[in-house]
Structure prediction request, 650 residues.
Amino acid sequence: MPDGDVATTPDEVETIARVMGGAVVIKAQVHMGGRGKAGGVKLAENAAEARAAAEKILGMTINGLTVNKVLVAPAAKITSESYVGVIVDRESQRPIIMVSPEGGVDIEEVAAKTPDKIFQLEIDPRFGLMSYQAMSLAFKLYDDVKQVRQAAVVMQRLYQAFVDAGGSLAEINPLITNDEGTVLAIDAKISVDDNELDRKPAIAGLRDLSAEVESEIEAREAGLSFIKLDGNVGCCVNGAGLAMATMDLVKCYGGEPANFLDIGGSSNPEKVVTALKIIGADPNVRSVLFNIFGGITRCDDVANGIVAATSQTSFTLPLVIRLTGTNEKLAVQILKEAGFSALTDMDEAVEKAVQIAKEAA
Amino acid sequence: MSIFVDRDTKLVVQGITGRDGSFHTSQMMEYGTQVVAGVTPGKGGQRFNRTVPVFDTVADAVAETGANASVIYVPARFASDAIYEAADAGIELIVCISEGVPVLDMTRVIPFLREKGTRLIGPNCPGAISPGRSKVGIIPGPICREGKVGVVSRSGTLTYEIIHQLSENGYGQSTCVGIGGDPIIGTNFVACLAAFEADPDTNAIVLIGEIGGTDEQQAAQYVADFVTKPVVGFIAGQTAPPGRRMGHAGAIISGSSGTAAEKMAALELAGIGVMKRPADVVSLLKERL
Prediction:
């Protein structure tokens, strides 16, 4: 991997480029792929050009993310570009390493157009990526055995980094050879499995909150699973599968869901209060649909949460409440006393919520 | 008959003294499940609810009680170790309820279990219930009825919704299995379909899938090739945006693959009755039985 330095201002970029001497490349540092296509990577022949490039890149947005940092690295004289990636494959239930001599481009396009140019092998995670395996793949990329050995080491290190970080994906794109025949990793990215973050605080600390929707951060901190969408029917559901099915049913009855929201399995009135606050803050929302199938979740807890949320705040959105299952009768009683009615049929509730949203739109 | 869990299931509960473990152990015992032992390291010698003996290790529990199945309620970061321990102690069926098990842990667990010949259901699943016989996990007993429909699902509450529709309309269940919402799980749709096909007391199968992966497509192919019993299916996530995890770690459309539309098309091609809404399960079953 070539040396590089991170900078946050055009001044810093110019200084770094002057010290490095020669041509440099300026690369946007964002937690997002496709930055080359978006104009976030530029080549500069000298320090002045580097400054000009930095002025363009710093502050630009790539897929909704603002660029606050750039990497300045010596520009390599590229003679070949390859791809190396590690993913967890659901079908074989193992990590898979993939290589392709067609690097520097979108690998999904290569897979779609010329699948014969992608080579892969399954890794037994108990043994890791062994040398002979890495060599066998590297021979698909290079003829020169010196380059093959270099590339094999890069692959083994990439696999180790993938394991150490708790990755769901790690890739080098491109892996290049330069004019001196050296194999170099020019760009790399890694995606980390959310379930690893508890035991990997150093990696969890890298989380860039500016890259996330504010309501989604608030939801995560409250233990809710929330994804904002563009419709006007707010959805508050227990369980991910039922939450998806509820969104689908909203669409089926001619509406558009405003969000995915799973309040989780254990019942807690506070969660319901936070959920309603988050949904209520979305200006598009015209009606809010509760769909609760009580199992571990107790319907009376949800009912108490609804009553607390609607009396505490200036909550004025119309609610359509469907609940059935554990402590349903108690819940209906609680809601009735607070002036709400509850339905037991999912279709009826969804249809009603869609209708209210349509009339209010 | 039924699949995976039955009257002869002798259950050990790993994490029996924890908040979730103790609550659901009581529920399982109330339902009639033979809970023969519990395991919490350091609490060996105690009794749960004055009846169930607690052991320090699964090996002790098996040696003393002859337990043949285990259910795991431990925190996710300890779950893979709990699975290894149960398999090593000779347990035949492990049901892992814990949510949030790292996927790389599962890549190591799966080949270990394969060598031992152990069946794992889950992780991140509600478990299995054979109504009137035994329940292992957290599926609410009162919504189920004894009967002949086999239910297999990647989801929790959505499964309850569909079981509820079935029970209310006179379709009892032979066994309901929640296989879990993670990208790597121990028992997939195909394994459940094979078991239901072989079970003489199951006469129809309900399959509840969702976006992400290709398990439903493989299930559809398996139904076309090997299943003679009527099958109806549902796929959740038609309105899910690509690239986002919809609650379940495995429910994600990557690029253009794993969409609800492609899964529904695969089910239809295999002759499976595809529900537009969960409520359609009854009318579709009626047509086919």
User: Anything to note?
Assistant: The longest strand of chain A covers residues 78-89. Residues 322 and 344 of chain A are 5 Å apart (CA to CA). Chain A has three domains: 5-74, 78-204, 213-360.
